[in-house]
Write a structure and sequence with these properties.
The complex is a heterodimer of chains A (292) and B (409). By secondary structure, chain A is of the alpha/beta class. Chain A has eleven helices and ten strands. In chain A, the strands form two sheets. Chain A has a six-stranded mixed β-sheet with strand order 6-7-8-3-9-10, with helices on both faces. Chain A has a four-stranded antiparallel β-sheet with strand order 2-1-4-5, covered by helices on one side. Classes of the chains: A alpha/beta (292), B alpha+beta (409). Bound molecules: adenosine-5'-diphosphate and magnesium ion (MG). The site of magnesium ion has 2 residues of chain A, from helix 1.
C-alpha cells in the first residue's frame, strides 16, 4: 500500500487574470521505503507540492490519501495530529525555535503528543544520537553550524517515527561538507526503512535517491527509478551536466556541482563564499550552462 | 502541556521583565486598591465588633442630628454622612431629659471643652481634648483605669481629672502622675487616675481618648458660663428593660422635649456596625469602580502586549504548527501567557497591599485586615481578567495558517 497517493491535485493562487497555477493536476504515488528526489527549476511548484503533502497547505482540487486516509478535507485538529504523527517536515531554513535547547526542540513534537517530560527528553536524546548530535543536546540553535542545525531539525522530524519525511531543499543553506553529512544522515534513515521525499537543486544528490521526479510549471514531467549511488538517467542526459567525474570533483565536493547548476536567485550564500577561490572557472561554466 | 506552557510563559515574562511589569501595572493597581479598601473595611468591622463586644450589647448612644434612616423593622437603611462627621451636638437639657427617663442604670454625657492644660512646670500640650463627663463615664466607655481611680459620685463637683495614657506621657513625662496637678482655664485640677490605653476608635474621628483629659461634667458646668453641649450621651438600661425598649423610651421622651422633632439619634450597640457598614459600602463601591477601571486598563494592556507577542512570534507559531501543534494547543500557549501575566500581576498587587497594610498599621489608627478570601478573590479576578483579555490574541494565534505563518518576507 502506498504511503502517499495524490490524484489530480491542483493548487491555484490568486483570482481571475492574476491566477497562478502552482500545481496542475499532479498525480503521484509514493511507496513505503522509497527515497524520492524532486527536482525542477525555481517556481516549478516543488515547495507547493511539499507543503500540500506535509498538510501545511490545502489543495485547490484533487484528492490526497495519506496512508489509508483521505486527508485533503480533514478538520484542522485532525490535520495537526496527522502532521504530528505521520509526517516529519524538514525545512531549508531549519526552523528550530531559538529559545530552546536542541534537545527541547527535538522533543517538542512529543510534548504536543502529551508525553511526560522525562520520557520525551529521553526519546529525543536517542534520536539526536542517531543523527550524531549527542554532544550538542544542551546547545541553543544559534550555537550550531548550519549542518548541525539541519541534523537537529531532521532529528525533530524523526522523533515521532513518522511514516514519511518530507524535506524541502534541506541542503539549500549548507556548504558542500555540511550537505554531505546531512545527506549521509538522510541516507542512513532511508536505509533503516523510512520513506523520504526530498526537494533538491543539486543533481549530484540524486545519487542518494531511489527515484527522481522532475517538475516544470506545476507538472511532473519525468518520473524515473534510479539506482542508489548512481545519477538518474535524466540528470545524466540533461546537457548542463557535461563533465566526467574526476578526483578533483570528489575533493571539492558537491559545492562545485551546485555552483554549476543552480539558479541565481536560489544561490545560497555559503556556497558563494566557498566558491570564491575557484570563482572564475565556475562562472565560466555557469555561462556555458545558461547559454544552453 | 499546561505546565509546559506556564513555564514558557514565565520564561518569556522573565525575559522582558520591564515590559511585563508595565503591562501588569494596571492589574497591580486594581488589585492593590480593591484589597486595601476591602481590608480596611474588614478591619473597621472587626474593631467595631470588638468594641461592641467590650462595651456590651446594652449600650445606647444618643447623638445630635439625624444620622440615619431606619426601616420599619428598625434596621438602618441609609446614613447621613454630613451629620455623622459634622458636630450636631446635644444640649445640657437633653441630658436632664434623659436622666428623667425611668429604668436607666447609667447615663453619661460626653462634652468637649475648650482649653489647653498646663502642668506645674509650665509644659503645655495643645492638641489634648478636654472631655467633660460624669462619674459613670468610665463605665459607659467600659474602660479600666490602670492607675488610681475614676471619679466617684462625690467627685462630680471637684476639680479632679482622669487622663489618657499619652497625656500622662506628654504633660507630666510620667507613667503614673497621680496626685500631680495641671491648670486649665485658670483652675487647678488634680490627676486621680490614668486610663488604660484605648483601642483606636474608627467611628469617632478626631477624638483619641488616649490624648484626652476627662473632667467632671458638673464641675465644668458650674465653673463656666458657656453651656456644655455633649456630642454624645451614653446610656445603659437596667436589667428589667431591653435596650430596644429603653431606646424607644428615650426617643419618645426626647422627641417630645424637642417639640416633636427627631433631630437626634438613639443608636443601639449594633447600629454602630450598621453605620460603619453603610459608610464602608459607599467607600467600597467608589474604590471598586476605580479599581474596575484600573483592571479594565490593565486587561487592555495585556491584550495589547499579547497581540504584539502573537505577531512577533508568527514564525514560531508556524513552526509549532508544522510539527503538529493543534489550534487548541497554540491557543492554550498564548492564553496561558496572558493568564500568567495577569496572575503574577494579581500576586504583586496582593503583595503591594500587604505592604500598604503594614504601613497603614504603622502610621495610622486604622487596622486593615487582609483575609485569605480577600486575597483569593483578588487573584481570581486577576485570572479572570487575563482569560478575558487574553482570549482574542490567543484565538488570533491559534487561527494562523501554518504556511502563511512560516513565510518570511
Ligand atoms: N502564496 C503564494 N501566492 C501566490 N503565488 C504563489 C504563492 N506561493 C507560491 N506561489 C507561486 O506558485 C509557483 C510555485 O511556487 P513554489 O512551489 O514555491 O516553487 P518552487 O518551490 O518549485 O521554487 C510560483 O510561481 C510561485 O510564484
Ligand atoms: Mg521552493
Amino acid at each position: 500500500m502506498p504511503v502517499i497517493e495524490l490524484q489530480d491535485v491542483s493548487k491555484l493562487y490568486g483570482f481571475g487574470d492574476a491566477t497562478t497555477i502552482a500545481l496542475d493536476e499532479v498525480s503521484l504515488k509514493i511507496e513505503s521505503g522509497e527515497f524520492v528526489a524532486v527536482m525542477g527549476p525555481s517556481g516549478s511548484g516543488k515547495s507547493t507540492l511539499m507543503n500540500l503533502l506535509g498538510l501545511l497547505d490545502h489543495p485547490t482540487h484533487g484528492s490526497y490519501k495519506l496512508g489509508d486516509r483521505f486527508v485533503s478535507r480533514l478538520r484542522p485538529n485532525l490535520r495537526a495530529k496527522a502532521r504530528r504523527d505521520t509526517i516529519g517536515f524538514v525545512f531549508q531554513s531549519f526552523n528550530l525555535l531559538p529559545n530552546m535547547t536542541v534537545l527541547e526542540n527535538v522533543a517538542l513534537p512529543l510534548a504536543y503528543k502529551g508525553m511526560t517530560k522525562t520520557r520525551r527528553l529521553k526519546q529525543a536524546g536517542h534520536v539526536l544520537e542517531r543523527v550524531g548530535l549527542s554532544d550538542r543536546e544542551y546547545f541553543y540553535p544559534y550555537q550550531l553550524s548550519g549542518g548541525q542545525a539541519q541534523r537537529a531539525a531532521i532529528a525533530r522530524a524523526l522523533v515521532n517515527n513518522p511514516s514519511i519525511i518530507i524535506a524541502d531543499e534541506p541542503t539549500g543553506n549548507l556548504d558542500s561538507a555540511a550537505s554531505r553529512v546531512v545527506m549521509e544522515v538522510l541516507s542512513d534513515i532511508h536505509a533503516s526503512g523510512s520513506t523520504i521525499l526530498m526537494v533538491t537543486h543539486n543533481p549530484e544528490l540524486t545519487r542518494y535517491a531511489s527515484r527522481v521526479v522532475f517538475m516544470r510549471d506545476g507538472s511532473i514531467v519525468t518520473d524515473e527509478q534510479s539506482a542508489i549511488g548512481e545519477l538518474s538517467e535524466t540528470v545524466r542526459r540533461r546537457s548542463y551536466f557535461v563533465r566526467h567525474k574526476t578526483v578533483e570533483d570528489d575533493l571539492a565536493g558537491v559545492s562545485a556541482l551546485m555552483g554549476a547548476v543552480q539558479d541565481k536567485d536560489t544561490q545560497p550564500k555559503a556556497v558563494k563564499k566557498k566558491r570564491s577561490s575557484k570563482a572564475k572557472s565556475y562562472k565560466a561554466r555557469e555561462k556555458r550552462t545558461k547559454a544552453k | 502541556m499546561i505546565n509546559v506552557n506556564t513555564r514558557m510563559a514565565l520564561a518569556s515574562i522573565g525575559s522582558a521583565r520591564w515590559r511585563s511589569f508595565l503591562t501588569m501595572l494596571g492589574v497591580i493597581i486594581g488589585v492593590l486598591s480593591v484589597v486595601t479598601i476591602v481590608s480596611l473595611g474588614e478591619g473597621v468591622k472587626q474593631q467595631l465588633g470588638a468594641q461592641v463586644k467590650r462595651s456590651g450589647q446594652d449600650l445606647l448612644t444618643v447623638r445630635g442630628g439625624h444620622l440615619a434612616t431606619r426601616s420599619n423593622q428598625g434596621k438602618i437603611t441609609s446614613v447621613n454622612l454630613l451629620n455623622l462627621f459634622g458636630g450636631n451636638a446635644l444640649s445640657d437639657s437633653d441630658l436632664q431629659t434623659i436622666q428623667k427617663v425611668p429604668g436607666l442604670k447609667l447615663v453619661a454625657p460626653f462634652a468637649v471643652v475648650a482649653g489647653v492644660p498646663q502642668a506645674d512646670d509650665g509644659t503645655q500640650v495643645e492638641d489634648v481634648t478636654i472631655v467633660a463627663t460624669n462619674d459613670k463615664g468610665a463605665d459607659a466607655l467600659s474602660q479600666d483605669v490602670v492607675y488610681g481611680g475614676f471619679f466617684g459620685a462625690d467627685d462630680n463637683n471637684k476639680p479632679v481629672a482622669v487622663i489618657g495614657k499619652r497625656v500622662a506621657e506628654r504633660l507630666f513625662r510620667a507613667n503614673v502622675p497621680i496626685g500631680r496637678s495641671f491648670e486649665l482655664r485658670g483652675q487647678k485640677f488634680i490627676v486621680q487616675g490614668v486610663f488604660q490605653e484605648f483601642d483606636a476608635n474608627p467611628l469617632t474621628p478626631g477624638i483619641d481618648y488616649n490624648q484626652a483629659v476627662f473632667v467632671p461634667y458638673e464641675f465644668i458646668k458650674r465653673s463656666t458660663t458657656t453651656p456644655l453641649t455633649p456630642y454624645q450621651i451614653l446610656v445603659r438600661p437596667d436589667n428589667k428593660q431591653t435596650p430596644q425598649a429603653a431606646g424607644q423610651a428615650i426617643t419618645d421622651t426626647l422627641k417630645q422635649a424637642h417639640g416633636g422633632q427627631a433631630d437626634f439619634t438613639v443608636l443601639q450597640a449594633a447600629d454602630n456596625i450598621a453605620i460603619a457598614n453603610n459608610v464602608l459600602n459607599i467607600l467600597t463601591s467608589l474604590v471598586t469602580s476605580i479599581a474596575g477601571i484600573s483592571l479594565l486598563v490593565g486587561g487592555i494592556g495585556i491584550m495589547n502586549i499579547m497581540l504584539v507577542a502573537v505577531s512577533e512570534r508568527t514564525h514560531e507559531i508556524g513552526i509549532r504548527k508544522s510539527i503538529g501543534a493543534t489550534n487548541r494547543q497554540i491557543l492554550s500557549q498564548f492564553l496561558t501567557e496572558a493568564v500568567v501575566l495577569s496572575t503574577v500581576g494579581g500576586f504583586l498587587g496582593v503583595l503591594a497591599s500587604l505592604a500598604a497594610n503594614y504601613f497603614l498599621r504603622l502610621f495610622t489608627n486604622l487596622q486593615p485586615v487582609i483575609t485569605w478570601p480577600i486575597m483569593g478573590i483578588a487573584v481570581a479576578v486577576a485570572i479572570a481578567v487575563g482569560t478575558f483579555f487574553g482570549m482574542t490574541p490567543a484565538l488570533k494565534a491559534a487561527r494562523k495558517d501554518p504556511i502563511e505563518a512560516l513565510r518570511r518576507i
